[in-house]
Amino acid sequence: MIEVICKENYFLARGTFSIGLAGIYENKNFDDKKITIRPSLHYMLRELEKDTSSLYNPLFPFLKNKRKKEELAKGLEVYYNQKETELRQHLKKINGDILFHLFSYMEHCAFPFWEMKQAVISGSMDFRTLDKPENQIYSPEKSIRNYQANLCYGSGNETVPKSDIESKLRELYPMFNFDGLYASVIPEYLCLNGRFLEAIFSDSWGRHLFNFALNCLDENFMCCEWENN
User: Please, which residues bridge with residue 76 across strands?
Assistant: First the structure.
């Protein structure tokens, strides 16, 4: 949960915000920069004067007809805390999106994760005995991309169940240390940008898997932008 204030035309947050696999972001003080809120007060006021706003439409019930900065800060606080509560109900989908993007990349380039000690469950496989392990670990027949349709279409808030991507990945790659990956995540920055939640995170395994990765979610927790350096 976060508190929000407005100071010198900018909104500031204090508290924590959790986004599943992407980590828990925390501002211990309002001047901390781990969690930021954009845009500025002046930009928001201009958008709120419109009948519709691509950035603020979902926030209209919390902000419309408010002019005082204290009221607007409270509206943002209520909206984003509500979103964090809703988000907890859709962690399987949100985490699945992230893992899908990661393993799609790994499969595409035959990324040798077995060369990273932390990424492999101890005793699960002796890669030293394998000739060209990438040919035995990766194959088109068991690619996670075969499940793309079930993962990538529809709203994160929908009632129709989607494939459990993480469970499928654990089945396809039983040697991969998924629990270790979760524990390795470094939350870098979180930007609350109107209807968008923009989380940037890395891994502590040398940033070989997540390197300032950006996962942008809309108000329905759909992944609308993904980047991984």
Answer: none
